[in-house]
Design brief:
The complex is a heterodimer of chains A (143) and B (589).
Chain A (H helix, E strand, L loop, with lengths): L4 E5 L3 H13 L3 E5 L2 H10 L4 E4 L8 H10 L5 E6 L4 H9 L4 E4 L4 H33 L3
Parallel strand pairs in A: 1-2, 1-3, 3-4, 4-5
Helix pairs in contact in A: 2-3
Chain B lengths: L25 H74 L2 H5 L1 H14 L4 E8 L4 E5 L13 H9 L1 E3 L13 E8 L2 E9 L1 H8 L7 E8 L30 E7 L12 E8 L5 E8 H4 L1 H89 L4 H34 L6 E3 L1 H18 L2 E6 L7 E3 L1 H18 L6 E10 L4 E8 L6 H4 L19 H11 L3 E7 L3 E9 L8
Parallel strand pairs in B: 11-13
Antiparallel strand pairs in B: 1-2, 1-5, 3-4, 4-5, 6-9, 7-8, 8-9, 10-12, 13-14, 14-16, 15-16
Helix pairs in contact in B: 1-7, 7-8, 7-9, 9-10, 10-12
The chains are: A alpha/beta (143), B alpha+beta (589).
Chain lengths: 143, 589
């Protein structure tokens, strides 16, 4: 089974650089965006399995980015990873469809576990979507 | 942007006195005491005094009139008594002259007998009795003096009695060389006049004149129309000499009463030198009766009443003043206690506000510390990953160098954050000190800059280097500017980008500094502009703001002798304008 493709969105460049290395060491395919805007641009070009998203960013912040992703139909399972450990903000993010949240600093193993969970969810959603699509097509063309 | 006439729009609760805890000096309470006590005293004492004055002045006038009427009455009675004394003796002499002839009185025995009868009838009030012919020769005489040889042709009384028929003389010396007066009557007998003359006993007459029964009488005496004494006033003056008290002897009808002051040295005693003097003229002779009564004695009853009234008034006034002082003191103590309680509450609120700021700030700082910690953790994990891959020494060395350098840099970042936080925490105790406001504002910016930047907000400064140091309270100023900066950040939280500008400008004219904190946020709705400094007013969602921040800022700036105002255009942004004096008001310093 191929490894998941992960989009890492954070304005802390050193952090994304290190995290990217760590995830790659664990076999993930990782791309980095340093703002909400560049994350949207990247998502429009390519599909990812999981997004790891920071909440506090200049310009388009995490919540705004999530809203935009949803609006553009680019939905991907998203993990919130932020230093801003406010439950309120996290809840808001969950309402917008985020898979889960983690507060900085966090161990890579913990993050990986959540990424796996999100990826599973993503695959299930994909499978469900595929099944529904097959169902729709087969009902349209009965054998 | 800045000018000295900038208006400071103050919130609706300008009276909200947050910072007055230590400001209320004793002078304030003394003034308050005055504001209470004077109306109370005026409202209670004035009517009492006016009423007492009106009543006592009416009563005094009435009593005075009564005393005067009584005095006049008694003087008039006494005048009649004296008049009667003289008239009765004159009539008796007249009757004797009518009923007895000259031959009768020429007999020494008869004259002696008549003199005896007269004195027994009139209480020995006659000194002598004599018969005188029309040429002034003494024909017969009964009395203590040797006057039988004397001729009265040239005597004033002789001429007068010859002319008038009946005559009562003034006091004169005569042949006996001692003061006396006579009553003389004439009778025509066989074409010739003869005179029956009696001398009145001076002592009896003096006693009669002084026998008036009025309390506190000083002197009672008689003067003739030339103002010469006819009887001696008790204790002063000499008979036939001018009146020592100088009562003018002008003719008048009835009883005349006047108030006279004794000449200094005559009476001497202070307070007893005022006399009530009544004068009344006798019908015959032309003598004026003078009665001098001590003024204080005359009006002793009135004075007693006045004294009683005054004592009552004084006592009542003292009671009123005492009660007013007591009750005002009590009210003031209650107010003072309430003020202290209010001050305590204000201080607690200020403290709560401060703690809220610390809490907010701590949350921000914790977030900012988590970021470098996150990086440090990833560096650790990178090294762990590498160790698990059996790396070459070269690879391990490179990674370690990279990681250690990064860890060092992130630790520096944390240190800066904690230093800023500690500086803030240290300033939680109020103290007055010199503050370089430009540097101070920069420190506040440093504390919040990262949070602002992560929200896409850029911070600009425009500091006037001419600004002098303020003598102010940094802990309170910090509270104000952190609040203003927090508000500016919150106002732009829904925007991707924003900016906050801090400006300072020295004002030499007003001896202070103008500080502006502007943001490019959503602005304040016009209807809320007047309320933003009110306590508990907030537009933030429930749980996000206490509504105390700006009202605390208002209280602090007011306490530090400054002004705070706001200008805002909805959708354009908000500017908070603060003016702080270089030297605070006395009570703060």
């Amino acid at each position: 089974m191929p490894n998941a493709r992960i989009l890492l969105v954070d304005d802390e460049k050193v952090f994304t650089q290190n995290m990217s290395k760590l995830l790659k060491n664990r076999g993930y395919e990782v791309e980095v965006a340093d703002s909400g805007e560049s994350a949207i641009q990247t998502l429009e070009k390519r599909r990812f399995d999981v997004i790891v998203l920071d909440l506090k960013m200049p310009g388009m912040d995490g919540i705004a980015t999530l809203e935009q992703i949803k609006k553009l139909g680019l939905f991907t399972e998203t993990l919130i990873l932020t230093g801003h450990g406010s439950i309120d903000t996290a809840k808001e993010a969950m309402k917008l469809g985020a898979y889960d949240y983690l507060t900085k600093p966090c161990e890579i193993d913990e993050l990986e576990e959540k990424i796996k969970g999100a990826w599973n969810q993503e695959r299930q959603t994909e499978e469900k979507d595929t099944r529904e699509m097959v169902k729709k097509i087969s009902s349209r063309y009965p054998s | 942007m800045f000018n000295s006439t900038d208006s400071y729009r103050i919130g609706g609760q300008a009276e909200w006195d947050w910072g007055s805890a230590e400001n209320r000096s004793n002078r304030y309470y003394v003034r308050l005491f005055g504001k209470f006590i004077w109306p109370i005293l005026i409202c209670s004492l004035l009517p009492l005094l006016v009423l007492s004055w009106v009543i006592s002045s009416h009563y005094m006038e009435f009593a005075r009139q009564r005393v005067l009427t009584n005095f006049k009455q008694q003087v008039n009675n006494h005048r009649k008594t004296i008049q009667l004394f003289l008239m009765s003796r004159k009539s008796t002499l007249k009757s004797l002259a009518r009923t007895h002839d000259r031959a009768y009185f020429s007999q020494q025995d008869n004259l002696q007998k008549t003199f005896g009868i007269l004195n027994s009838e009139y209480d020995d009030s006659f000194t002598d009795l004599g018969l005188i012919d029309s040429r002034g020769n003494h024909l017969a005489y009964v009395g203590p003096y040797d006057l039988i040889e004397k001729n009265y042709m040239q005597a004033h009384w002789f001429k007068e009695v010859m002319r008038k028929g009946v005559y009562i003389s003034d006091i004169f010396m005569g042949f006996r060389k001692s003061p006396h007066f006579v009553i003389a009557v004439t009778r025509h007998e066989s074409g010739e006049k003869w005179i029956l003359r009696a001398t009145i006993d001076s002592n009896s007459f003096q006693k009669l004149v002084q026998s008036i029964q009025i309390a506190g009488i000083g002197q009672v005496y008689l003067v003739n129309e030339n103002g010469l004494l006819q009887t001696c006033p008790e204790g002063s003056g000499q008979i036939m000499q001018p009146d020592p008290f100088g009562v003018p002897a002008h003719k008048h009808q009835g009883i005349e009463v006047r108030t006279l002051k004794s000449e200094a040295g005559t009476e001497g005693q202070k307070g007893f030198d005022k006399y009530l003097v009544a004068s009344a003229w006798l019908d015959n002779p032309d003598w004026m009766l003078i009665v001098r009564q001590n003024y204080l004695t005359a009006f002793s009853e009135v004075n007693q009443t006045i004294r009683t009234t005054l004592t009552f008034l004084l006592l009542t006034s003292f009671i009123i003043i005492f009660v007013a002082l007591l009750s005002t003191g009590y009210i003031l103590r209650v107010i003072k206690r309430r003020d202290q309680e209010m001050d305590q509450m204000n201080n607690q609120l200020m403290q709560a506000g401060k703690l809220a700021s610390v809490g907010e700030l701590s949350a921000g700082v914790a977030h900012e510390i988590n970021n470098p910690l996150g990086i440090i953790l990833t560096e650790k994990q990178l090294i762990q990953d590498l160790l698990g891959q059996n790396p070459s020494m070269e690879e391990l060395k490179n990674q370690l160098e990279d990681s250690l350098q990064q860890i060092g840099s992130q630790i520096g970042r944390c240190k800066l954050l904690t230093q800023n936080l500690l500086r803030f925490a240290r300033r939680t105790q109020s103290s007055m000190e010199q503050v370089d406001i430009n540097r101070f504002l920069q420190e506040v910016i440093d504390l919040m800059e990262r949070e602002a930047k992560s929200g896409g907000i850029k911070i600009f400064t425009d500091f006037d280097q001419q600004v002098e140091n303020l003598y102010s309270d940094p802990s309170q100023l910090q509270q104000v500017f952190l609040n203003l900066m927090n508000n500016a950040i919150d106002a732009q939280s829904n925007m991707p980008y924003g900016n906050i500008t801090f400006r300072t400008k020295s004002d030499q004219k007003r001896k202070g500094v103008h500080i502006e904190v502007s943001d490019s946020g959503m602005g304040i709705a016009r209807e809320n502009l007047d309320k933003i400094f009110d306590p508990f007013f907030t537009t933030k969602p429930v749980g996000k703001g206490t509504g105390l921040g700006l009202s605390i800022c208002f209280g602090i700036i007011k306490r530090l002798g400054g002004e705070i105002g706001v200008e805002s255009e909805p959708g354009q942004g908000t500017t908070f304008k603060v003016f702080l004096p270089y030297q605070p008001p006395d009570q703060v310093a």
